[in-house]
Amino acid sequence: MVHKYQKHGIVRGILSLHLCIIKVFKNNLNKKIMSITVNGKNQEISGESISLLELIKHNDVKQPDMVSVQLNGSFLERAKFEETIVKKGDEIDFLYFMGGGSI
Amino acid sequence: MDFTDLQIERYSRHIILQDVGVEGQQKILEGKVLIVGAGGLGSPVALYLAAAGVGTIGLIDGDVVDLTNLQRQVIHFTADVQKAKVQSAKEKIEKLNPDVKVITYETLLTTENVFEIINQYDFIIDGTDNFATKFLVNDACVLAKKPFSHGGILRFEGQTFTYVPGNACYRCIFHAPPPANAVPTCSQAGVLGSIAGMLGTIQATEALKYFIGKGKLLTNRLLVFNALDMEFRTVNFKHNSSCPICGEHPTITELQTYELPTCELKH
Questions:
Q1: ipTM of the complex
Q2: Can you say how many angstroms the Cα of residue B253 is from the centroid of all Cα atoms in its chain?
Q3: Is B186 a catalytic residue?
Q4: Which of A37, A77, A94, A102 to mutate to test the interface with B (most CBs of B within 10 A)?
Q5: Which burial class, exposed, middle or buried, applies to A66 when counting CB atoms under 10 A from its CB (0-12, 13-18, 19+)?
Q6: Is this structure's pTM higher than 0.80?
Q7: What CATH superfamily classification does A33-95 receive?
Q8: Domain residue extents for chain A
Q9: pLDDT tens sequence across A36-52
């Protein structure tokens, strides 16, 4: 036979556990995913922002030191790549040199 | 300008086209286009502009026809191997349309000759195969206020835009040429032959639209396509106020000579 106070303790324990589970569940629901547009296509990135250099890696940009980047309609100076942060709703275009040629 | 009966017949499909008509065809016949490079892009451009009746076509290329060219440079044939490209191209243009006057420059475009040459033309086509010359064409056209069509292809992709004075230029997107040999060329990475036709024909179309004055040119827009997915995309780009040549405080006021890439592949 469970003592009255033990029952109380068990109930509290179960309640805490439930609250804990709900909290974890809510945290996962609120986990930030942001939507950006890269080369005209939608991309979902986890987090509230991403550095441009990370985005370049994430998109497997070939020759990252040759790529030209347009962010929200303006071209970025290469010197600014490192400090640039991409946020939700941003539009990025990666443009590459294309020269043709037989040399 | 009076059209001969033969011309009315030859250009009938233009003349009956509402946005071209007799006036448009006349402008085309009076037009002068310089095609820089008689290769992958230059071939379809030359053929379609000649077919359309562009009155004067200038061709500049210092190269001779090589067997490896024939996979995509459709103005040259097997019997033309080792012949000067401008000569080979001129022969085909004259056979296609005797209305066209062809002026050939069997040489490279350089800082020394570029202004003297481009000043004789209304529209320039970049069909070059290296970045040094692409930037030269851009810079000379910006400084001389000449419209031109930029083009480049590689593997399965192509990109093009049209420069009209006062609008964005090549340096608005790409500030300066990449170091020589930093970017793969067709001989290193390959190119699907018909890509040259896809892009060159777009360039020819832009030139014709420029003459007839109808439609919207690819100004401030880079058309990019990937033929594997057959997806086309236009990227809008603004005239860059910090562009080194056409921006508010230009740092380039005269032509630059860049190193030409060296040949790694002996063909």
A1: 0.80
A2: 24
A3: yes
A4: A102
A5: middle
A6: yes
A7: Beta-grasp domain (3.10.20.30)
A8: 1-31, 33-95
A9: 999 999 999 999 999 99
